[in-house]
Every structure is written in C-alpha cells, then in structure tokens.
Design goal:
Blueprint: H1 8-18, H2 20-35, H3 39-52, H4 63-106
Helix pairs in contact: 2-4, 3-4
C-alpha cells in the first residue's frame, strides 16, 4: 500500500498558514539584518574620506566611529532577534508535524 506524498510547496504553504506571524516577523528581521550590513562600510568610507579631506558631509571626526559602534550594537540586537524568530518558525513547524502525526494515529481504526 502506497502512502500519499506531500509536495514541498503544499507543505510549506501549510506551515505558513499555521503560524503566519512568526514567519513574517522572521522575514522582516532577516531583511533588516541583511540591509544593515551595508551601513558600517558606508560609515567607514565617510570616516576615511574625512581623514584625507574629501568630505561628503561635514561631521565631527569622532561622531562617525560612534555611529559605527551604535550600528554594530543595533545589528547584534537585530541578529539575536532574527535567530529567535527563526527558532519560533522551526518550533511551530515541529508543532504542526506533531499535531498531524497525532491526528493521523488517532484517526486509525482502534485508536
């Protein structure tokens, strides 16, 4: 007897419908983390441009390293939150799997 198969697309869509908020939060935090990786490089460019005298913006020389430090702290907070969001998505997938297994076992004759 052949068991019915579940396509990847259908399984993924059922996980999205099970807990959509967790997936959305994880997606937004992932985009925020990836987009903040550009900011420290841009600030470093501004710092070194200010050192050699080519100024795009006029700022205190110590303001830019302070901003770099602030951005790095914010990135680490966002990365931690993104890891938490990823674990929530994984755990909700595990919960859906357990729920489906128990429902399947209990629907069999003699359960």
């Amino acid at each position: 007897m052949s068991s019915p198969s579940l396509s990847v697309l259908r399984g993924t869509w059922s996980m999205i419908r099970f807990r959509p908020v967790y997936l959305l939060v994880n997606l937004l935090l992932g985009v925020a983390f990836l987009s903040t990786q550009v900011v420290p490089g841009w600030l470093q460019k501004l710092f070194f441009d200010d050192l050699i005298g080519v100024r795009e913006i006029t700022a205190n020389l110590w303001l830019i390293p302070g901003l770099i430090l602030l951005v790095e702290v914010a990135r680490s907070v966002v990365e931690t939150a993104e890891e938490w969001g990823g674990s929530q998505v994984r755990h909700s997938g595990y919960a859906l799997l357990r729920k489906n297994i128990v429902q399947n076992v209990l629907s069999k004759p003699g359960a």
